[in-house]
Description:
Layout: E1 5-10, E2 13-18, E3 26-30, H1 35-46, E4 50-55, H2 59-71, E5 76-80, H3 86-100, E6 105-108, H4 123-144, E7 154-158, H5 171-191, E8 197-203, H6 212-225, H7 234-244, E9 256-259
Parallel strand pairs: 3-4, 3-6, 4-5, 6-7, 7-8, 8-9
Antiparallel strand pairs: 1-2
Helix pairs in contact: 1-7, 3-4, 4-5
Amino acid sequence: MQRATRAVSVKGKAQVTDNKSLSGKVALITGGSRGIGAAIARRFVAADIHVAIGYHARSDAAESLAAEIAAAGGQCLAVKGDIADPEAVQRIVGDTIARFGRIDILINCAGIAPYVPLGEIDAAHVRAMFDANVLGTVLVTQAVLPHLPSPGGRIVNFASALAFRPIPRSSVYSASKAAVVTLTNAWSRELGPKGITVNAIAPGVIETEMTAAILVERGAAVMASTPLGRIGQPDDVAGIALFLSSPEAGWITGRTIIADGGVI
């Protein structure tokens, strides 16, 4: 039997995607207005998934992406809120349910990544990092969990390759992302009996607004360290998120996929 496909053109790119198993599903993507999160939103819409993009500060980016997706024939809701604020999280999830009536997939992509050298780390830095990268992941997952289909729900968290090989000045960031790896493993054991999978993606350096300074400082070294000889792009990661959210990944849970171009 020939599978149904749908072509969606976003920013001049036409993507043909098998949507038989994903069509009509709903994904909440935190940090979805820019960078990797925005690439995931575009890739999901190309697979006929309805998306809610959570964002904190950049209303212009969120509204622009939502308009772009709508113009391409997709369904998108932009929802503002701080994921470290329990009330804001409930509002984000509530607005998503009010618009789409369900949530099948959660992508915990929001986070921050300032680097500070040892000796200059203060309590505010640690709290801000763990609030955004760890507490936010916990709060959003807890709020979404009652709405995920059982079986069939999908949770994809975002860690970092630095959780496994930290570099100077990244200690607190790397520790927060290592915590995400641990949460992913633990939650997979809790939710496995419900048929809900929990996985994580640990990107290396990906070319986004967040990594602009890093690429200026050591972009050539990053390219030289990967056999592929280039800088990773947001869409390189978006395809992994789509796979982990699909029924085809139903036998994968508790795993963190390092997506760094084979850095050596």
